[in-house]
Amino acid sequence: MVDLGKVKGLEKLTCVRLAEVISQKNTISSEIITDALYAQDKHGDPFVQTLVAGGHITEWDLAKLVAENFQLPFLMASSYAISEEAKKRVPEKLLFENLIIPLDLFDDVLCIVMPILSPWEVIGKIQRETKCEIFPYVGLISENKKVLGSMYPTFKPWFDQEQKRREVAATKRANTKGQAGDWMSIFDAGDAAIQDNLGAPPAPKKPAGPSPKR
Q: What pLDDT shows up at residue 3?
C-alpha cells in the first residue's frame, strides 16, 4: 500500500478531463469520444466502459493512461485481502452500480479500486455515504466484476439484469433514431418537391367561360 494521506485533486477525476487526455494521444477519434461522453451524460452509460466495450481501447491501455495522467496507483483487486469492515461500510447498491471494490479502512480513510476511473461525482457520493475520505486505486473493469461476483452472490444476477436493461434501452434509442431519420427523409422529400414546384413554370390558366345565368 502507498502513503494513505488525504488525496488532493480528486475533483479533477472527470470523464471530460480523461477525454481531453485521450484526444491528445490521438488513440481514439474525437467523434467516438464525443459520442461516449454524450451517452454518459444523456443515458448514464459509463464513459470508460463504453470505450472499452466498443473495442476502441483495451482496458489495460486505458488504465495505464489514467494512472499516469492522474498520478494514481494501480492495483488488481483480487491481489488484496479485502477488509470486512470496508466491505460493510459501503452499500452494495453503490458498489454494484459503479463496479467499485472496497479494499480497506484506515481510521477515516477508505481505500477503493475503481473500474479504471470513477468520476468525481461518484467518489463524492461514496464519501458522503461512508463519511470517509476516499483513496482510489486504478483497477480493471473485468477484474472488479470478477471480484464483486466472488464477494456478493447477488452481484451476477443484478449485473445480468442491468445489462439486459441497457441493451433494451440502447435498441429503443437506435430504433427511435432510425424512425427520426425516416421522418426527416419524408420531410426532405416534401421540401424538395416544393422547391421543384416553385422552380417550375406556372401552369397555363384555363380560359374564363361565360358567367352562369342567374
A: 54
Domain housing 143: 10-155
pLDDT tier at 192, thresholds 50, 70, 90: low
Quick check: 173 and 43 in contact, CB under 8 A? yes
Q: How many helices (H) and strands (E) in the chain?
A: 9, 3
Tell me the pTM: 0.77
- CATH number for the domain spanning 117: value is 3.30.300.160
* Residue 202: inside a domain: no
Instruction: Establish if 148 belongs to a structural domain.
Output: yes
What 8-state DSSP symbol labels residue 14? Answer: -
Into how many domains does the chain fold?
1
Among 175-179, 190-194, 195-199, name the most confident range: 175-179
How many angstroms separate the CA atoms of 207 and 138, rounded? 85
Whether residue 2 lies inside any domain: the answer is no
HSE at residue 2, side-chain half, CA atoms within 13 A, is 14
